Amino acid sequence: MTAVAVALAFEALLAEENSLLRQGDFIAATALTPRKEELVAALNRLTIDDPALMMASDFTEIGARLHALATENRTLLEAAMQAQARMIRMVANIPSSHSVIYRRGGRFLRPPLKRGVLLSEAPG
């Protein structure tokens, strides 16, 4: 593949990944990672072998589009990581269903368990 073909393939892949991230399809976006790494490695090899290539007008136009897509990609990935961290915190802080036992009147039978205490270790 030529450097321009690799750059265009990488551009298409980043656009697809950004679309998947916007849709919240993180699994499909993650599945693109191996191909993304291949294209970056190939692009690096080709541009190191021919540094003058980066000065070609068609290549600089592609580079500008890639930069915009990569900037958006970073923003979307950061947002996805923040959402994932919020979900993890939410799940980690959900009390066990057996941590508080209520009576019919709404009063609890025993106080809630302290974090990390097993029900079998609870007093009473």
Beta content comes to: under 5%
Rg is: 25 Å
How far is the N terminus from the C terminus? 72 Å
Shape: rod-shaped
Helix content: 55-70%
Care to describe what's here?
The protein has helices at residues 3-23, 26-31, 33-49, 57-92; strands at residues 101-102, 108-110. The chain starts with a helix and ends in a 14-residue tail after the last strand. Helix 1 runs antiparallel to helix 3 (33-49) and helix 1 (3-23) runs parallel beside helix 4. The protein has a two-stranded antiparallel sheet with strand order 1-2. The mean pLDDT is 83. It has one domain (3-92). By secondary structure, the protein is mainly alpha-helical.
What keywords describe this structure?
single chain, 124 residues, mainly alpha, two-stranded antiparallel ribbon, 4 helices, 2 strands, 65% helix, 4% strand
Write a brief caption for the model.
The protein has 124 residues and is mainly alpha-helical. It is built from four helices and two strands, in the order ααααββ.
Topology:
Layout: H1 3-23, H2 26-31, H3 33-49, H4 57-92, E1 101-102, E2 108-110
Antiparallel strand pairs: 1-2
Helix pairs in contact: 1-3, 1-4
